[in-house]
Design goal:
single chain; 310 residues; alpha/beta; five-stranded parallel sheet; four-stranded parallel sheet; 11 strands
């Protein structure tokens, strides 16, 4: 495998990684190579892509390309079942929490920035959510296993419009506080979080607890959960959220995560980003985010500080 000459590319002033949930056609090694090629500093390894016995090869690939493991995704990543993980739908919160705890042990060898964990839930906006207390108890188990390896957990609230109960940073921080674990931080996602009425106030309030922001954007006419667009497209909420974080002194990761159904989740959208060669849409995403970040700084330079609607 050829090594990307990172010295030829100016280093951005922010930390950018790709969540490899976003690249369903890639192998783990292809993820590392393509993330390096586009200019990312980190790669959010997805454990479901790591074949048994491949661990040393992945370590070598990360070192070869000068890449850091970013916010990595365990084989099972939610405390409660989710439709996105069909094989785990019959598992209890205890089963899933134990599975994630075991993943923390396996993924520790890559020295990731954090382990992604979501609360889970059914994803059906017509139904009520699952008990928060189960999430609290599961988070204790997972955080303890991560802590034994010196790792942090990046806890991601999900979208209220998709039926989630843990849908904003205040509720997520309450869950973290109830767990009593200090190695758990926040991972808001633009697509999930942008409609929250107090989003900018919460980003400022909890900035010191935010490990990363998952960057993408929401289509004007959203067709499914698997219909996200590049940063700066659609509602273009990524720019405002990035501006707020810059203004608040954020120094965590910008973690690119775009799902765009090519038929594997039931809808072969004609404009699917996943239908493109993966490195092509990853480069497009990297370039779009660079523009979004620049525009966010320009907003602040002229005194435009994003605020929540009254």
């Amino acid at each position: 495998m050829g090594k990307v000459n990172q010295a030829m590319r100016p280093e951005p002033e922010y930390k950018y990684a790709v969540c490899c949930w976003s690249t369903p056609k890639n192998s783990c090694i292809e993820d590392i190579e393509q993330c390096a090629a586009i200019g990312a500093q980190g790669v959010g390894l997805f454990e479901q892509k790591i074949a048994p016995g491949q661990e040393e090869e992945i370590e070598q690939a990360l070192a070869h390309h000068g890449m850091q493991a970013g916010i990595v995704v365990p084989h099972d990543w939610t405390i409660l079942p989710v439709p996105l993980n069909p094989a785990a739908r019959s598992l209890t919160w205890r089963d899933l929490s134990a599975n994630i705890a075991a993943s923390c042990k396996r993924l520790a060898r890559y020295k990731p920035a954090a382990i992604l964990v979501g609360p889970g839930g059914h994803g059906d906006p017509s139904l009520e959510g699952h008990p928060i207390q189960d999430v609290v108890e599961g988070l204790k188990v997972i955080a303890d296993a991560a802590g034994e390896e010196g790792l942090r957990i990046a806890f991601e609230p999900y979208a209220r419009r998709r039926g989630a109960v843990i849908h904003n940073l205040t509720i997520a921080m309450d869950v973290i506080d109830k767990s009593g674990r200090d190695n758990v931080g926040l991972l808001p996602d633009v697509w999930h979080y942008w409609p929250e009425p107090n989003a900018h106030a919460e980003l400022r309030q909890y900035v010191d607890h935010i490990i990363g922001l998952q960057v993408n954007d929401s289509r004007i006419q959203e067709r499914s959960w698997c219909d996200r667009v590049q940063p700066g497209w659609g509602h273009n909420k990524c720019r405002e959220m990035v501006a707020t974080l810059i203004d608040a002194g954020f120094d965590g990761w910008y973690d690119y995560e775009v799902f765009s159904d090519d038929g594997r989740w039931g809808n072969a959208w004609p404009d699917s980003l996943w239908a493109k060669p993966h490195q092509e849409f990853l480069q497009e995403g990297y370039d779009n985010f660079a523009r979004v970040y620049s525009e966010a700084k320009q907003m602040l330079a002229v005194g435009m500080r994003p605020v929540d609607a009254a």
